[in-house]
Amino acid sequence: MTYQSQADLAVDAEFGARLGAALTGESRGRPADPLAKVILNYPQQGVSWFMPFTASAPTFADKYAGGGQSAITDADLLSAVQADWAAVTAVHDL
Fold this sequence. Notes:
Helix 2 crosses helix 6, helix 3 packs across helix 4 (43-55) and helix 4 packs across helix 6. 76% of the residues lie in helices and 0% in strands. It is elongated, with a radius of gyration of 13 Å. It has helices at 3-10, 13-28, 34-41, 43-55, 60-67, 74-91. The chain has 6 helices and no strands. It has one domain (3-91). By secondary structure, it is mainly α. The termini are far apart.
């Protein structure tokens, strides 16, 4: 893992789009959740809030360095979103 790989992943447009899709899908199942409401109304805000957590998720930088954003599976991405949900909610006082 390198900080450069994390930084590169954080600005990868395709990865950002995939993160947005994962966040939207997860939010649809949480209609009363304040964070889900923000994401459903402002998807790019959700990507912005989650990206620092997601780009630094365990193994993501190594996978990215070894094969680009597609080396991070959809299952990996969903797992990271679910694992970080409470932390992102707390950081943004929701």
